[in-house]
């Protein structure tokens, strides 16, 4: 009976050692996967942050461009209005500042 008990205890001890070794190995592999995934998350967060900064820069540039375009349109409209007003004036009024005497004479 001592031999049987010793054999059972030896088998239980061997099983516990094997279980512990397997658990430790699996834990190490899982920890390695967790570390790799955390590194991937960190890398992706960095990329997303960079993309957000790029987006903000592009958005700001687009707003500046739109503002410049609106100002250019306004200036063009003012120039067109001034040209229309100038075109409506008689020629002798336009020539007078330059010393030309055109138009009706007395």
Molecular structure report:
It is rod-shaped and about 145 Å long. Helices cover 87% and strands 0% of the residues. It has one domain (17-98). It is mainly α and 106 residues long.
What structural category do the secondary elements indicate? mainly alpha
* Tally of domains: 1
* Number of H- or I-type helical stretches: 2
| Overall 3D shape | rod-shaped
Distance between the termini: 150 Å
- H/E element sequence: HH
Query: Could you tell me the radius of gyration in angstroms?
Result: 44 Å
Unreliable runs, pLDDT <50, ≥5 residues? Answer: none
Summarize the biggest pleated sheet.
none
Specify the helix fraction band. over 70%
Share of residues in strands: under 5%
Q: How confident overall, as mean pLDDT?
A: 84
Number of strands: 0
Secondary-structure map:
Elements: H1 2-88, H2 91-95
Short description:
The chain is mainly alpha-helical and 106 residues long. It has two helices and no strands.
Task: Give the tags.
mainly alpha, 2 helices, 106 residues
């Amino acid at each position: 009976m001592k031999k049987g008990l010793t054999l059972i205890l030896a088998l239980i001890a061997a099983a516990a050692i094997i279980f512990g070794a397997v658990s430790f190995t699996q834990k190490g592999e899982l920890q390695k996967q967790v570390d790799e995934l955390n590194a991937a998350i960190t890398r992706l967060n960095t990329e997303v942050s960079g993309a957000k900064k790029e987006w903000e820069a592009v958005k700001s540039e687009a707003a500046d461009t739109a503002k410049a375009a609106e100002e250019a349109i306004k200036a063009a409209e003012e120039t067109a209005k001034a040209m229309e007003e100038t075109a409506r004036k008689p020629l002798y009024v336009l020539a007078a500042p330059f010393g030309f005497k055109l138009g009706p004479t007395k």
